[in-house]
Design brief:
10 strands; single chain; binds guanosine-5'-monophosphate; two-stranded antiparallel sheet; alpha/beta; Rossmann fold
Length: 191
Amino acid sequence: MNFLEERIAKDGVIKPGNVLKVDSFLNHQMDIDLFNKMGAEWKKRFEGKPINKILTIEASGIGIACVAGTYFNCPVVFAKKAKSINIDGDVYVTEVESFTHKTKNQVLVSKKYLNKDDHVLIIDDFLANGCALQGLISLVHEAGGTVEGIGIAIEKGFQIGGQVIRNLGYQLESLAIVEGMNDETGEIIFR
Ligand code: 5GP
């Protein structure tokens, strides 16, 4: 097991509905030592890529993306979830269905902060069905930028997102891939 898998095994809590809670170190309280290890690991895995921007989505991607930003030495932009009423022509916008809340959000980035010269590393905490990632990818493409890679903390390998994103040809680097989990026994199996 790597450092993240060990932490998930120790502190992760399995909830019904295929939800893994990692509030004690990632989604509520944040372990910055752990985030540093994650940033360093992504830096290694994306070595040689001309990354000049990190893109994530609010809220829970922001912390890990910021720490990763110190390893890539680049700005971090987070896509905002917004009510359609706020949207004007100065933003790139897409729609994302939330896995955890089962709602659809319009997600946007100002045209000021994403453009054709950007070589983007997308970072997020979880990959489940891939809706959040597909939304972020489409924002980069709307802006005419390039997706250089995707860094995920925890991929739930038993859901379809990882396969969909890899089939699209992206370099997807998930630091822990959960192959199965049992909310009755608390058992977690990693790929
Ligand atoms: P997707 O769009 O890939 O279906 O879901 C990814 C998003 O849903 C992530 O940004 C994450 O916030 C949330 N998410 C999906 N599955 C889980 C989970 O098991 N636990 C937690 N804490 N968040 C999840």
